[in-house]
Amino acid sequence: MRVIRKWVMMTDTKSNKPMNRIFSGIQPTGNLHLGNYLGAIRNWVMLQDSFESIYCVVDLHAITVPQDPEMLRASTREVAASLIAAGISTERSILFNQSCVPQHAELAWIFNCTARLGWLNRMTQFKEKAGKNRENATVGLYAYPNLMAADILVYRATHVPVGEDQKQHLELTRDIAQAFNSFYQKDVFPLPEPQIFGSATRVMSLRNGSAKMSKSDPSDYARINMTDDADMIAQKIRKAKTDADALPSEKAGLVGRPEAENLVGIYAALADREVDSVLQEFGGRGFADFKPVLADLAVAQLSPMGQKMRELMENPADIDAILADGAARAAAIARPLMAEVRDIVGFLGTSTDH
Ligand code: TYM
């Protein structure tokens, strides 16, 4: 598939260990939606067959905005269950929640002392999330990208599959890795590559083709949740905003029609086809024809996952055990890296976590 073909599975000649390692994360805040699925999770599932993969439910990131403790716990389990239902293998991949591996926070502090205010000031996501009342935003929300860099680099991950909205944070991660390596004159961290691929790297709201589909949109009709049942999915697609024109036969005809572009992109991603080929099939036909076909496809792919997720949620203790096992495996990778970093930075002694 597309990008994967370009990858070469490199091996360290001395240790004979694979040198490519994937890391990615997702916030346990509210419902996972089609944007998370098509922009990230589906790619995670695909990549785990070929690469050592570490997937993380980022609860430390979640508390950069206020969270109800019980809701946060429940959401962490739900997101883990959704990932497993979507096909993340807890044997082949490592799945855990971030706060259980304290090396993330430890390395993030060091990166707070590496990244520059000027770099963080450029982060558009902080500006969006903090809104007008910036003085009242938490320091954690501001330093959020430094923690993200720590998530990735504490495993020396080389590839990070994400949606397009995370691209700027990944660029900052590379800047931090480079600045640390250069200050200490050591080749400690790789410069990780964002893996942004598929025809739905930025899934838009179903109510407004110019706004990103997001967990925080006040209208539930703006997004398709991974837990929506078949009727709800079909209803949301039926009600999705469109224009009155028929679909074009070529991509150029989608310019200036963000809602049409979004629905075609979603269809192409779900069907694993190119947008051009979808337009060749549906060009000239109206949304009254296209929407039911899209709804059938979305229901066929998403509703079994919703069902599986609900089944998994019947045994929360099993999910907790999976996450604990994942955290132990993740910590086994993060600890030696952190010991090395402590030494490089000049900290005396060993961490009590070792
Ligand atoms: P989060 O929780 O907002 O989203 C998780 C993943 O879903 C992708 N995504 C989308 N893709 C396409 N269209 C959309 N509308 C859409 N909405 C979300 C995101 O790009 C992301 O890949 N900061 C991250 C979590 C994180 C992380 C990391 C990611 C923390 N540490 C380290 C990678 C590596 C976030 O808030 O994602």
Oligomerization: single chain
Order of helices and strands: HEHEHHEHHHHEHEHHHHH
Kindly provide the radius of gyration, computed on alpha-carbon positions and rounded to a whole number of angstroms: 21 Å
Shape: globular
State the helicity in percent bands.
40-55%
The CATH topology of the largest domain turns out to be Rossmann fold
Q: Unreliable runs, pLDDT <50, ≥5 residues?
A: 1-8
The ligands found in this model are: tryptophanyl-5'AMP
What structural class do you assign from the helix and strand content? mainly alpha
Distance between the termini: 41 Å
Spatial strand sequence of the major β-sheet = 1-2-3
Major sheet characteristics: 3 strands, parallel
Average pLDDT score: 93
Number of helical regions: 14
Give a quick rundown of the structure.
By secondary structure, the chain is mostly helical. It contains 14 helices and five strands. It has two domains: 2-201 and 315-345, Rossmann fold, CATH 3.40.50; 220-311, Tyrosyl-Transfer RNA Synthetase (Orthogonal Bundle), CATH 1.10.240.10.
Task: Describe this structure as you would to a colleague.
There is one protein chain. This protein has 354 residues and is mainly α. 52% of the residues lie in helices and 6% in strands. The chain has helices at 2-6, 34-47, 59-62, 69-86, 103-112, 117-121, 124-130, 139-153, 167-184, 230-239, 258-271, 275-282, 287-312, 316-345, and strands at residues 21-26, 52-57, 94-97, 159-161, 193-195. β1, α2 (34-47) and β2 (52-57) form a beta-alpha-beta unit. The longest helix is centred in the C-terminal third of the chain and has 30 residues, at 316-345. The two termini are 41 Å apart. Tryptophanyl-5'AMP is lined by residues 23-27, 35-36, 39-40, 58, 61, 148, 151-152, 160, 162-163, 165-166, 201-203, 212-213.
